[in-house]
């Protein structure tokens, strides 16, 4: 049975992997361009009004400081491991900074001095240590009891730029939910309290796994310290996300999944034959 895939009219559009592929003056997406989007593995997106957020890749032992103003800065980390006594692996998820202190003492681990402490997941957070013996593990090996250790230099910079409520995304190389910066001049965002946010993310992930995300997810959600607790937010399972999302002849919600594309969503009956893609499903 043939299913019609609709196309969308662009107001502006850009692709990070090939910015010259499609001009902002293009009136519509072509057959090949729509096909490329439909075959792209799409993930969910939540938004922040903060000027900075941090991404931690546990698989690489690297951190990335994302900025609203500047390029992404990469820094080395050493995260949690079960190989040491009372050690735990650093949890994956989306969190926000819940506590900051220039100096903080760990009551659990012999009152160890932690410099530029920024907690986000109960007793887990970013920090530096007084000595430099741990530097050899940064970017190379997990070595902490669960926290994310960084150099004193990087800890100082993170402490100065991350505020209460700044997001922290922790994953193992890939994630089904990512973070993007919200437009501070727009009111086109939805805020959920923690309970409803957890339920909404589950709903969105369910559609993402079923391949129906583009037709049933159309809200841009704001996250901050008011709706993200120490428990954090699930980043889903990227392995459950199909390589292709179905597009029904109705409305497309491409922008929810791909914030780099800004679209004008229009009904299918407004499309001309050249803007309709037929495919067998």
In the sheet with the most strands, the strands line up as 6-5-4-12-7
The overall pLDDT, averaged over residues, is 81
Structural class: alpha+beta
| Rg (C-alpha, Å) | 21 Å
- Listing every helix as H and every strand as E from the N terminus to the C terminus, the arrangement reads EEHEEEEEEEEEHEEHHHEE
Distance between the termini: 7 Å
DSSP E strands, number: 15
- The portion of residues forming beta strands comes to 25-35%
Task: Tell me the number of structural domains.
Answer: 2
Q: In DSSP terms, counting alpha (H) and pi (I) runs of 4 or more, how many helices?
A: 5
Q: What shape does the CA trace take?
A: globular
**Biggest β-sheet: count, sense, barrel?**
5 strands, mixed
- In helices, the fraction of residues equals 10-25%
Taking pLDDT < 50 over at least 5 consecutive residues as the criterion, the unreliable ranges are 1-27, 263-281
Q: Could you describe the 3D structure shown?
A:
- The protein is α+β, with helices and mostly antiparallel strands and 281 residues long.
- It contains five helices and 15 strands.
- A five-stranded mixed beta sheet has the order 6-5-4-12-7, covered by helices on one side. Strands 8-9-10-11 form a four-stranded mixed beta sheet.
- The protein is globular.
- The termini are close together.
